[in-house]
Structures are given as C-alpha cells and as structure tokens.
UniProtKB/TrEMBL annotation:
Residues 109-299 form the ABC transmembrane type-1 domain. It comes from Pelagovum pacificum. This is ABC transporter permease subunit. It is a multi-pass membrane protein. It is found in: Cell membrane. SUPFAM superfamilies: MetI-like.
Amino acid sequence: MRNLVPVLVVLAVIAGLWYAAVAPMNIRGALMVAERSGETVVPEGTSTRFDVSVWKLMADNPDHIHLAYGLDRPRLPTPGQVAGELWASTGAMALEGNGFSNRSLIYHGWITLRSTLWGFLLGTFLGLLGAVAIVHARVVDMSLMPWAIISQTIPIVALAPMIIVLSSQVGIDGRGVPKAIISAYLCYFPVLVGMVTGLRSPDRSQLDLLKTYNASQWQVFSKLRMPASLPYLFASLKIGIAAALVGTIVGELPTGAISGLGARILIGDQFGTPLAIWAALFAAAILAGILVTLLDVTQRLTLRRMGVR
C-alpha cells in the first residue's frame, strides 16, 4: 500500500492533465459539430476558425466546450473513451467468445507477443554470448564493443524495412522472423552492456582469493562472476523486454502486416480512427507492464533463493 500511493498520485496527475488537454485539442471539431447542428458559433465557418487560436475559440464559445469530450473521432480522446474502446476490443469480445477474432486486441496482442518473445530470447542469447566474450578476451572487448555501441545509432525505423527485404531475399516467408530479428536488435544491447558490467563487478580481492584456490576460469565464472552479475542481468532483461516489444511493433509498421498491435496502430491511422490507435497503444503498454512485472517477480524469487537482498 505504501508503494501504491505514489503510483496512484502520479496516475491522478497524468489523468488530470490529460482531461485538461482534451478541450483545446478537440475544440475545433466540437465547434464544427455544434455549427452543423444549427447552434451559434463564433466565428462562423470552419475555414475562418483555422486562423483563430484554440484558446480564443474556447473563450468565445464556452457553452460548446463540453462537446469536445464526446466526439466520435476526437484528436485527443478522454481516458474514459480509451478505456471504453479497450474494453470493447478485449474484455467484451472475450465474454462474447470472440477473444481471438481478428478484431480483438487480444489476438493482435498475441501476434505481437509471440515475435517479442522470440526476439527477446535471441537478443538475450546474443547479449550474454557477447558479454562473456568481451569480459574474457581483450581483443573482443576492443573490437566488438565499439561496433555494438555504433549499431544502436542506426534508426530502427530505417533498418526495419531493410531487414524485411533481406529476409525475403533469402527465402524467409512470413513476417514473424523479420519482426523477431528487429526485436532482437533492440534487445541485445542493454543485455550486453548490463552483463559486461555485472561480470566485471567482483572485486580484485575476490578474484585473487579464487586464484589462491587454483580455481579454473569456468569455476571463477560459475562461482563468482555469474552470481555477482545476476542483479545486473535482471535489470537489463527488464529494459530488454520493453525494447523487444518496441522493436516488434516498429517491425509491424512498414511491412504491410494486418496482424499485431503495430498493424492496428497503422490501420487506425489510415482509416482515421484515433480511438483504435489509442486502444492499441494502451494494450502495448499493458503488455509491457505484464512482461516487466513477470521478470521482476522472477528476479525477487531468484535473488531470495540465493540469499541476496
């Protein structure tokens, strides 16, 4: 409960700012609706109002501000509208037995989650492999680490279409594998950096102590470096799983995919349905929260079993 209060306070502040921003964002659409229904609007004419600031429109038309909170296609929906759309495309459809229809966000979330998990596993494996090599071989440290850093400066939006085209050229059909590669691309770097830091975290005195016992490299790794790196590993995995989810969604945007949360965002933009876009965004955020929470629980259980507080 002590940890829940700050979270609820921040959530209340965000919701308050969100509601306050709805009126100026939607006032032009609200005045258009009012004018079409025969009510008096100042100034008259949609083209005339484009040259007037939203603050003056709100000051001149205070009786129509409430319409900004109930538009069918608002520029900025209210939190209630987003929650309603999210429920309509998830819980309500599941209760009707259509949870995995192609109109359900549960189905699209599963498509995104599947590629995210494959990309996360691949990225984590490459990150761990690279970290072990960097820590144990100075040549790899000097050659691989700079390229790993430089690789993260390439915009993923530009790289994603290239990965998809190259995947199709080598005979990889479907969108799952390219999305997993893009996801792994974003995931491996935080794992690599975190594990390099973790594997180097033991003190010189601890390493010297194992040398006095004539411990082998494998024993130093398994008995000292790996246990010491676990807190760093879990912190990196939490960042990595969120990055993998972002990579998958970005990979769904330029591919012409019709399934997945990224595809829902793109289709919502093309058909002018902001509520669908916001619902998909919140579905992605909820999915990321669940994945990070699962990793956090795993971290707590693992470290508690190892006697680490």
